[in-house]
Amino acid sequence: MKLWLDTANIDEIREINAWGVLAGVTTNPTLAGKEGVPFEQRLKEIAAEVDGPVCGEVISTEREGMITEGLKLADVAPNIVVKAPVTPDGYAAVTEFAKRGIKTNMTLCFSPTQAILAAEAGATYISPFLGRVDDIGNDGINLLSEIVEIYRVQGYTTYVLAASLRSPQHVVDSAKVGADVATLPHSVFKALVKHPLTDIGLKRFLDDWEAYQRALG
Predict the structure, then answer these.
(1) Is the predicted pLDDT of residue 213 greater than 90, yes or no?
(2) What structural domains and CATH numbers belong to the chain?
(3) Residues with catalytic roles
(4) Which of 3, 68, 151, 166 is the least buried, fewest Cβ under 10 Å from its Cβ?
């Protein structure tokens, strides 16, 4: 399972990218707005920093508007993936992008039927939102598992991208059920590396090393 970062903060991206484990980025105009930078400018900066896919979302809700915006976003850099919602106009736009060889990510997926339609439309990625499903009392991991199983049985080539992940356990569970990609906020990505026993073990090692150096004189 590939690990992506969900952010428009270039410093967060550079930090995680330095670990050598970052495979891509998802972002949108809302996240760029929080950074106070124009969306396309930030997309270009992210695409230059990250070798893998960088998903940028269209704002329009109409097919023609989505296509116009998506073509413009795709021209920003070769690794841009155009993100569109799982709506009738979104499916229509993604079908057109697929004909043109433009990679896409269908977002705001909350049901297996929406995921089936995305695959039929030729989407490169489908993004079920696990945390938001949990928020309304349903089971986000179960939704993810159903989509993964349907795609396996049907032989769909669309990648399943687990989104709206709220904790390291969400990441573990997504990997267990077979997600192809997980996109995480910076805080969750940082939490993946944390464990109290690691901190304790490292402190003991350094304390022992200092004691050893003192003993040598």
Answers:
(1) no
(2) 2-192 (3.20.20.70)
(3) 83
(4) 68
